[in-house]
Amino acid sequence: MRITARLVAPFIQLYGIYVIVNGHLSPGGGFSGGAIFGSSLVLVAISFNLEAGAKQISHHTASLLESGGVLGFTLTGLAAVFFGGNYLANRAAGFPLGQAGEFFSAGAIWIITIFIGIKVASTITTLFYNIIEKEQTVGATKRTDK
Amino acid sequence: MELLSGLINNYYYFVAIILFVIGTHTMLTHSNMIKKVIAMNIMDASVFLLFVAIGYVHGGRPPIIAGNEEVLYVNPLPGALILTGIVVAVSVTAYALSLIVKIHRTYGTVDCDEICKIRGDE
Amino acid sequence: MVLSEQLPALIVISPLICAFLSPLLYRRHARASAYLVLLSLLLSLIMAAALLIKVQRTGPLFYQMGSWPPPWGIEYVADPLRVYMLLVVVAVSLWIFIYAIKDLEHELRDEVIGWYYTLYSLLVASMAAMTLTNDLFNLFVLMEICAITSCAIITIKEDRECLEAGFKYLVLSAMGTGCFLLGVAMLYMVTGHLNFGFLQEELSTAVLNYPLNVFTAAALFIVAFGTKAALFPLHVWLPDAHASAPSPSSAMLSGLVIKIYAFSLFIIFYRVFPRSLLDSLPLSEIVLWLAAFGVMFGSIYAMLQTDLKKMLAYSSIGQIAFIFLGIGLDQRLALVGGLYHIAVHAITKAMLFMAAGTIIYATGVRKISDLAGIGRVMPLVMVAFTIGSASMIGIPGTGGLISKWYLALGALESGRSLFVLVILLSSLLNAIYYMPIVINSFMSQEDFGHGVKEVPKVLQSALVIGMVFVALTGIFSRPLILLLEEQMALFF
Q1: CA of A84: which chain C residue's CA is closest?
Q2: What is the spatial distance between Cα C60 and Cα C237, in angstroms, rounded to a whole number?
Q3: pLDDT category, B75, cuts 50, 70, 90?
Q4: What is the mean pLDDT of chain C?
Q5: Measuring CA to CA, how many Å separate C128 from each of A143, C215, C248?
Q6: Which residue from C minimizes the CA distance to A95?
Q7: DSSP H or E run through C394
Q8: Which member of B68, C50, C267, C287 has the greatest number of CB atoms within 10 A?
């Protein structure tokens, strides 16, 4: 299980990034791609012990990325306000639209998708760390009682 | 007979309503907390099923533009709404499950009737 | 970019940005994140006041999110009625937060206070957006954010009662949300629109072609909003949840969260459903009778309580039923009374919960029978409690009288004098359970038996602000009543 997890994790992460980045061209987008990426980090943490998982992405970094993802999303919307449209406007605010089907197309959508992907991945790892760390401290106290 | 043929033709809607009733009934009557969370998920999933079934167009293709042909597409709006709905349901489930973990640590059980008994004895 | 036109979005964005900056800041400097939340709420309040002035001068403002026009985009509407509700939400949240900065250190562990600020800001942002939104699915998403954050500010305290009460609230709230989403699916099935304006046009024809769908949707909406706003038979989660939560959470929940759902039900009844549906179905009758029972039973249950905060929570059930009584009477003056009662009860109940919280902070006493003689050692807190009780009963000079007066006038004008009797009886019952506490605390023979800690200046100033607000809503109520009367004339 450990060998498989070690081998497969980079491929899962690459697939997750592919789903995030192709959010505006094919089914997927920020939520599902972020969940896939987050699951790969949780997989490493489950199959090895917690320190190996923490070396990939520490608890502190995950919390920072979580807030940073949403702030990026919100500030992109605000940038649209400054460029002349309403909040979260796309064409009206002058984001460059390309050809439909290319990568750098559809204005602000790929920026927002990447921020959502970062946010969802870091949320899944933060949730996992919170539950596991509580379990470890509670388990330790239980063992010392008995 | 008209009712029966109507039900068989629109079986998506029929199944969605049955799942909704099953989910609501389980959520309100069963006392195990984890069953309540599972029933909440079933209830939400049934409403999502109803929403997506509304958007189906007979003979339509998935709504992804590939080339410039005139094709009949399935309505993409319910799908986008349900994506948001699924994320919301997942967050509520995650929060409810972490609450159950904490309740189990405090009370020692996840059964609502036993918790009522413990609270009543205090 | 004209700033005054972007105001509806900016009022919602300001607490939202602050909610996610606050955890980053809390690690470095705990006080700074509290001041950041305070600053963002103050900014929202100033922007809401500016929006009210603009909307009164130039008419309703339609704001399209993402510059996509409806029906493709989400629309936010700012007309004077909605901006009145927005002002109530932001002003009362700011005031409760001033109280919360000091009180939370006593009730929660230090690590979780930073997360409390995040949850609080998210709750304010979602409620502010719920008053402005004009789109059914956006309303669903905001309702879910509101439900999760309001449940989280109860369970963040991690006591035994908090966790169980919070779970009960979450399960019943999730049932309400499921029913709401099914109602939205029913309406979308027959009209294909989610925007309130387009829905109202389409529904006048859709009711004739597909009546069962619309009736089901109406019934599901009443159940959904009734569960979340604690209408009579669906109120069972409220006493435990509001009594066991930390005091600023109780004030926020009882004061604002249950009202925003009553307001959303009002908007859906009058902006989504066509007038023909309200005339043909007894929707208002059902809400009216449930509200009448809620008024009576809320007061009767409150008389039997021994815990101070539980009594206040049962009193909330009775008072929120007044707002539903206004909606159910379906008459102009009654609606003015019901909507004004939103502001009055928000201020009064928040102040009562803050007074109860200050008593618990200073003495640790929660039972009513132990409160004898406390008025002599904590005079300011008990004077605030007295003024709050006076407003709940409906004594002239406080806001409670104005809203009950308009409700009774509306009941008389629509020919249903029974409900005037209900209002009078409930005022009498309110007096029966509020007055003994006040009289006992000031004029009892015994002295107060527990030790009293020093009450910080911040908590005292929050109570003084509350007393000023209650007097303002009672004596200087004319501007708000005029605003509400003008807006109600548009509906009838």
Answers
A1: C1
A2: 37
A3: confident
A4: 90
A5: 48, 29, 18
A6: C66
A7: none
A8: C287
Residue C130 makes CB contacts below 8 A (sequence gap 6+) with C139, C142, C143, C146, C260, C264
CB crowding C96-117: b at 16 or more within 10 Å, else e: bbbbbbbbbeebbeeeebbbbb
CA distance B30 to chain A (A): 26
DSSP state for residue B75 in the 8-state scheme: P
B contact test, residue of C65, C135, C141, C167 with most B CBs within 10 A? C167
**Contact between C155 and B28 using a beta-carbon 8 Å cutoff:** no
Specify the pLDDT at position A100: 64
Placement of tokens 């009448």 in the chain = C292
- A109 Cβ under 8 Å from any chain B Cβ: no
Q: Which helix (H) or strand (E) covers residue C75, if one does?
A: strand C75-78
User: At C331, is the secondary structure helix, strand, or coil?
Assistant: coil
Mean pLDDT, residues C261-273:
92
Alpha helices in chain B (DSSP H): 2-9, 11-29, 33-54, 77-107, 112-121
Domain spans of chain C? 282-492
pLDDT > 90? residue C452: no
- Residue in chain B closest to C172 (alpha carbons) equals B28
Q: What is the pLDDT of residues C419-448, one digit of tens each?
A: 999 999 999 999 999 999 999 888 888 877
| Contact (Cβ atoms closer than 8 angstroms) between residue C380 and residue C457 | no
CA distances to B60, C29, C97, C152, C394 from C120, rounded to whole Å, are 45, 18, 9, 9, 31
- Taking an 8 Å cut-off on Cβ atoms, the answer to whether A131 and B66 are in contact is no
Q: Between B and C, how many CB-CB pairs are < 8 A?
A: 77
**Which chains sit next to C, with 3 or more Cβ pairs under 8 A?**
A, B
What are the Cα distances from residue A9, in Å, to A16, A42, A56, A61, C399?
11, 10, 11, 19, 63
Sequence-distant (≥ 6) Cβ neighbours of residue B26 within 8 angstroms: B35, B36, B38, B39, B42
Q: Which domain holds residue A119?
A: 2-145
Please identify which residue in the block is written with the tokens 């929940």.
C253
Q: What is the pTM of this model?
A: 0.93
* Per-residue pLDDT at A141: 47
Counting Cα atoms < 13 Å in the Cβ hemisphere of C91 gives: 16
Contacts of A74 in chain C (CB under 8 A): 13, 16-17, 20
Q: How many domains does chain A have?
A: 1
Nearest Cα to Cα of residue C265 among C167, C203, C168, C342: C342
Residue B8 at interface with chain A, using a CB cutoff of 8 Å: no
Query: CATH number of the domain at B2-121, please?
Result: 1.10.287.3510
